[in-house]
Amino acid sequence: MEEKALQTVEEKASILIDALPYIRDFNHKIIVIEYGCSEWLSGKEEERLMQDIVLLKSIGMRPVVVHDTRMGMDKFRENKRVAKLLELCGVKAIGICGVDPETLHMAIDHDYIPVIVPNDIDNEMEYIDPRDTALEIAVKLQADKLVYLSRYPGIFVDEKREDVYARLTVEETEALKKERNFPEDFLEIINRGIEAVKQGVNRVHILDGRMKHVLLIEFFSVKGAGTIIIQDESRLYEHELDKKVLEEEVPFSEEV
């Protein structure tokens, strides 16, 4: 094998090895994904996102997709379209109208990816914010993760907007709300994230859905791709605790 090809194989193997602790900790965990960035994605980018969601399922996670509907589009037809995109990636997906925890559990237990449109037949003309629906579903299912995919990459560290916080507690996030002047629609995402964590969801991820492979980068790399909101550090995963111990170890000294 050529040296360059061998190096590529080794790099890919290294990535997989690094992902193993994450895969272990996320196995069988329910993850609710609020797909609120469709209007900013091309058809190809949307297909790539669906492939990434299917990959999450293939390694043991249990995704649930809640989607918005572009203005002028049929909500239920759109629901069927998103489910079909997932099925084209080789899994079973089913469109579900409204919030019905029993139906959701049944779909998950039978190896389907539930695809949720907020409206049911009796309120199809009303506007129901999918971010609220995703929050409600995540709480009722006691999901491990609630993901908000939008055009925001997370909570910026400072006004330079060069980097985002990888992880914040609810207390830290509340403090930032008092210090910063967040855009109204972004503040709504932050508030829902805080509420979800307070109601038992393990963590909330705020991600830029336009970023290529954003879910994979967020879940399976040390730095991630956006901002996580957690209650406190007691909610860290085993692989995060291991890393924290290493970070807190006293540096080696040659002094006797």
User: What's the end-to-end separation, in Å?
Assistant: 49 Å
**Count of domain modules:** 1
CATH topology: Carbamate kinase
What Rg is obtained from the alpha carbons, in whole angstroms?
19 Å
Assigned CATH class = Alpha Beta
- What count of helical segments does DSSP give? 9
Task: Write out the strand line-up for the largest beta sheet, numbering strands in chain order.
Answer: 3-4-2-1-5-7-8-6
Could you state the CATH homologous superfamily?
Acetylglutamate kinase-like
- Helix-and-strand structural type: alpha/beta
Average pLDDT figure: 85
The largest β sheet comes out as: 8 strands, mixed
Measured by DSSP, the beta-strand proportion falls in 15-25%
Secondary-structure element order, N to C: HEHEHEHEHEEHHEHEH
Global morphology: globular
Helical fraction equals 40-55%
List the uncertain runs.
Answer: 245-256
Number of strands: 8
For the structure shown, list the relevant keywords.
45% helix; Carbamate kinase; 256 residues; disordered C terminus
What does this structure look like?
With 256 residues, the protein is α/β, with parallel strands linked by helices. Mean pLDDT is 85; it is low at 245-256. Strand 1 (30-35), helix 2 and strand 2 form a beta-alpha-beta unit. Helix 5 runs parallel beside helix 7 and helix 6 (170-179) runs antiparallel to helix 7 (184-198). The protein is built from 9 helices and 8 strands. Helix content is 45%, strand content 17%. It has a single domain, classed as Carbamate kinase (3-Layer(aba) Sandwich), CATH 3.40.1160.10. The longest helix is centred in the first third of the chain and has 24 residues, at 3-26. It has an 8-stranded mixed β-sheet with strand order 3-4-2-1-5-7-8-6, sandwiched between helices.
